[in-house]
Amino acid sequence: MTRKAQGVIRNATVLDPVNGVNRIADLLFDNGRIVELDPSEAIVATHEVDATGLLVVPGIIDIHVHASPWLGGRHAHKMLATAGVTTALEMAGPIDGMIDIAANYGAGLNMACINYVRPEHTVDSTDPDASELSDLLNASLDSGAIGLKLLGGHYPLTPDATAATIRVAAEVGAYVAFHAGTLESGSHIEGMIEACDLAAGNPLHLPHINSYTRGAKRDAMEEGELALSTLLEHPNIWSESYLSPINAASAKCSNGAPGSLTTKVCLERGGYTPDEAGLEKAISDGWALLNVESDARVELAVGPDAVRAWRDAGTNLGVSFAVNPSEPRLRLATARNVDRGFVVDALATDGGGIPRNVIIDMGLSLVRLDAISIEDFVVKSSVTPARILGLTSKGHLGPGADADITIIDVERQRPVASFVGGEPVLCNGRVVGTGTRLITTPQGRKAAVAHGIAGPIVELGTMLPDRKIEAT
Ligand SMILES: [Zn+2]
């Protein structure tokens, strides 16, 4: 008998830590779901892949990306797909703009979004009260977001309003993430410790731990150790770090100086004056890496051509600096607690439209160094991110799981192909996916359908799960 199916991946090294699988097998999927390994019937499938010599893992999930008109832009989906990502959390919004990009520039990915709490944009002031925050959360959920993002380090609120946001989200079981920093503390290790206090035991996603350990207050390695011990004291907090050496800031200048404080600090660090002339020289010399849009992606650019592009854009472009010191970055990505779990839960990128989508490339460098195992790599880039998002049918390849699959050339540390819901997204390194599957709560379903991007439903109260309950 011959069975017809959506897809089969043959001769793959299938690695599925949740189900204890690590062997060469054929992987069968149909109707968007995994069916089984090594089917006994002969298969004729719409999508047949010979994955001899390649690694097949549950789709890579990046829980920190930017793909909105405010940050990341229209190339983000394609850049994520190129990097082998199948599911991502857009970490800022605004939700309406994020949805526009998802509907018009999608690459076949599952995407969720949290909507920013931004003074004069989504809230009136830097000190919104609980009822204003509750209204914003409700409107955000209606629009398709799964929760809220506190922009802290960039656009800080008062400590009270920050704590209230986290509490309001916890009350309804919505997602909430907080780039550390309030009106009383900055985006550094002290701000991170304040953030853990302000969570007051409520569930919280604390993003990019590595960016609080750049040596702003103490020695960078000391800050790294302090960050780790702080996380161990707060089991309610889920965290990620990224492996790229570069940060992201704005190159926009007015009145002869960059508007972004981060940009100024980075210029001084490179020995440049913290003004427009200093930034121009830094771009020309190669210290400031301009984020320039080409036809299909955002690329880092330096030198005279980059200076011209920056001038043509009226200085309104993104810019990156290699300011993430390597030692705490590597320590945070690999540190374990006594139970051998990872202290920083996930590998993410803060990428998307910012060109640093390096989960596979740099994550597999850690494997090559024997700093983590290949199973660990899958745990940090798919298994745990799926749990954090409350997506029980992702992060593994057992029968009935979503057919979200990433196929990797481990030798070259590059993705070769990927599937989302059994449909091809990446094929021989080329993006072939279109559209978006918006991950939303039941409350956001209507908005997703209205924009033609309906995707997986995640229930309130299942995201950022309680570790104590999970452990029993
Ligand atoms: Zn970010």
TrEMBL record:
Its EC number is 3.5.2.3. Its cofactor is Zn(2+). Keywords: Hydrolase, Plasmid. Residues 55-431 form the Amidohydrolase-related domain. The keyword rRNA processing does not apply. SUPFAM superfamilies: Composite domain of metallo-dependent hydrolases (SSF51338), Metallo-dependent hydrolases (SSF51556). The keyword Hydrolase applies. It comes from the Bacteria. GO terms for molecular function: dihydroorotase activity. It is an enzyme of class 3 (hydrolase). It holds the Pfam family Amidohydro_1. This is Dihydroorotase. It comes from Antarctobacter heliothermus.
